[in-house]
Amino acid sequence: MSTAETRTQAGPGTAAAEQSRRMPGLVPVTETLRTVERRAPEPLTRDTGEVAGEHPVWGGGMGTFWRLLASELALTFRRPRNMALLAVLGVVPVILGIGLRLASGTAGDGEMGGIVQNLAGNSLMLTFLSFSFLVLLLMPVAVSVVAGDAIAGEAGGGTLRYLLAAPAGRGRLLAVKYLNAVVFGYAVTAVVAVTALLTGLALFPGGSVTLLSGTTITMGEGLLRILLAVGYVGAAMAALAAVALALSTFTEVAIGAIAGTLVLLVVCQVVRAVPALAPVTPYLLPTRFTAFDAVLRDPVDFAALRDGLLSFAAYIALFGSIAWARFSGKDITS
User: In terms of DSSP H, where are the helices of the chain?
Assistant: First the structure.
């Protein structure tokens, strides 16, 4: 029997299979069409690491946003470095209170300074005194460490590209990083306030509180004024976080962004100390940090608090825009 007769008896299927074996690089056209029909057309996207159908800037929905924020907060408050900063800030009011208690016990009434004398009769005053000592240096250091590390730390560690993978967008990631720094700033403020309040109540008499204007208020009203001060100082730390976050987008070295923020603070303090530069002083961010003492007036100087909050909002808008403009167009290589 010839080869042709054998193919005929074997049937068309065998012949097609043999032809397919002879031409291994070809696929039957009918099979290709069926495969295409079974598959849904894939949308075209740019090679940006984003998923089709999602916003190119903000990524997925709000559920993903809150999950990403919760993950970022958990990472921040589990980091030993950040916990050590909170612990140091919590210890400072205790040391300050003990020192003032010893000073008030050894000095006579005529020898006590104004601060010690006020604190000796007002336990809540230790909270305001602690803010005055910490708000210009140690509290900004803690906030700068977290905000300055937000983008630069991820880039330096080589994880920024993975964070920008689907479904995370750049705008959402930047917002999460900033909100994380804001929450940490309020945590710093709350730690200082709570430890100072507890230390003051333990070491000094409670009861009515004498304000700087000489008016006496109840302890309950004094606690409400402490809450106002906490909200104001937390807003100040949020403005500082915006500055540190903006600097963090310009470098891949976290310590550079942190140091840059602190150098700016020091320069502002130097400018404030030069009388010839007094016209510039009202526009500097640290100038508004200590305006929380408006709650110690009777009535509360809400105009000073309002001006400070407007200044903080302006800094947040300005440096937030700088951070966004830099980060949205930045080539991510690490």
Answer: 3-10, 12-22, 29-38, 62-78, 80-106, 114-121, 125-134, 138-157, 160-163, 170-203, 219-248, 254-273, 302-328
**Each residue of 2-19: b (16+ CB within 10 Å) or e?**
eeeeeeeeeeeeeeeeee
- pLDDT tens-digit readout, 219-255: 899 999 999 999 999 999 999 999 999 999 999 899 9
Question: 3-state class of 122 per DSSP?
Answer: coil
CA distance 193 to 186: 10
C-alpha 225, offset from chain centre: 25
Chain-centre distance of CA 307, in angstroms?
Answer: 23
* Cα–Cα distance, 85 to 258 (Å, whole number): 14
Give the pLDDT of residue 114: 53
Angle between helices 170-203 and 219-248 (to 10 degrees): 150
Nearest to 49 by CA among 154, 218, 170: 170
- pLDDT bin (cut points 50, 70, 90) of residue 170 is confident
Phi-psi region of 210 (alpha: psi -120 to 50; beta: other; left: phi over 0): beta
What is the value of pTM for the model shown? 0.79
